[in-house]
Structure formats: C-alpha cells, structure tokens
Amino acid sequence: MTDELYHYAEVILNRRGIHQVVHRESQQQQWLDQAIEVHQQAITYHFDNGVVIRRTMELDDDDSDLLCGECWITYEVLSNDHSPVQVMPQKKSFDNPCRERFWLSYHAS
Fold first, then answer.
1. What global pTM score does this model have?
2. I want to staple 10 with a disulfide (CB 3.0 to 4.6 A). Which of 17, 24, 32, 87 is the partner?
3. Dihedrals φ, ψ of 36, to 5°?
4. Gap between the Cα atoms of 9 and 105, Å rounded
5. Are 52 and 45 in contact (CB under 8 A)?
6. Which residue from 44, 49, 48, 42 is spatially nearest to 22, judged by alpha carbons?
7. Which pLDDT score is estimated for 60?
8. Residue 9: how many other CB atoms lie within 10 Å
C-alpha cells in the first residue's frame, strides 16, 4: 500500500488528517554561524500505522521577523519497518514556511 507524505504533514501541523500520532520525540539545538544564532528543532512522529517521520526546522535569528523569511524545513520518512505502508516521497524540503503551506494547500484541494 502507498500513501502520500502530505497526509502525515497535515497531521504534524495540527490539521485534520487520516492518521494519528501515537508518540513524539523532540530535540532542539542552537549554535552560532558567522555571528548569527541558528535554532534547530527536530521532532520525530510515530504514527498509528507504524510509519515514522521526522520534521526538522532550522531558523536563524537574522530572518525570524520576516513573514516568509528563509527557514529550512524537511520531512523525512525514517522507518516503515513495522508498517506495510510505503510513503512517497521519502523526503521533502522547503526553504520557507510559505512554500510548505502552499504544498499542503495544493494537495488539500
């Protein structure tokens, strides 16, 4: 069985979805890159059907006040070992939250 990554992203972003998160793990880091503070948050989501997906968001303080400032967002399927579901694509990246929202809106219609 095949499923689309955007179905899981909808649930991750607290929109309605067909799957349910049963466990979540969060990691946060920050560091300086050329005198700019960078924040990274990686949350791993375990879904009721065995699919495991990590959403990583990296943001620097330089662009944090912009509505759609540069921000790196990645969804990555980590494991399907306990699930017969094949999630496609296996990885999706965005360079700002507006592109992420557009991707979800495009598939929602």
1. 0.86
2. 17
3. -115, 130
4. 11
5. yes
6. 48
7. 83
8. 21
User: What confidence tens digit (pLDDT) does each residue in 67-108 have?
Assistant: 677 789 999 999 766 678 899 999 999 999 899 999 999 987
Cα torsion angle, 43, 56, 90, 5, sign: positive
* 3-state SS string for the chain: CEEEHHHHHHHHCCCCCCCCEEEEEEEEEEEEECCEEEEEEEEEEEECCCCEEEEEEEEECCCCCCCCCCCEEEEEEEECCCCCCEEECCEEEECCHHHHHHHHHHHHC
* Rounded CA separation 53/47 (Å): 8
CA distances from 11 to 19, 20, 34, 101, 102 (A): 7, 7, 35, 13, 16
